[in-house]
Hints:
Blueprint (H helix, E strand, L loop, with lengths): L19 E4 L3 E4 L3 E2 L10 H8 L13 E2 H24 L4 H6 L1 H19 L6
Antiparallel strand pairs: 1-2, 3-4
Helix pairs in contact: 2-4
Amino acid sequence: MSSFECIRLSRFLPECGINGECTNGTVCVCDEGWEKSTEAAFYLTQAEFEATENGQDINLSNLICDVNLGVLKTCYAIALFATLVALGTQVRFLKSRRHVKKLSAYLICCIFSIFFCFERLRDFGRNA
């Protein structure tokens, strides 16, 4: 199988998975609300996987449509809400500078988590 053909994981499944369609035998076009991602692409060859980790471009047009954008957006929203609740609970009970210093790593981690959840939700659907 050439690396530029649409991928079929099983003979029982269609090319590009059940949420996409193979066009021209080389490009997977995803249904509305579905995307392709290398994060969930366990079927990549070792060379392709290492190339994505090293920041090199590979042909992503034939990946399977395996990421549901609605579910992923909901997960980010839940993570954001849970982090805001956790941070709010801790901030409410801060009593002194010593207490802030003691929890500084936790507070910084929460702030970064909130920032990255906002970033992912804000940029959602822009990058294929």
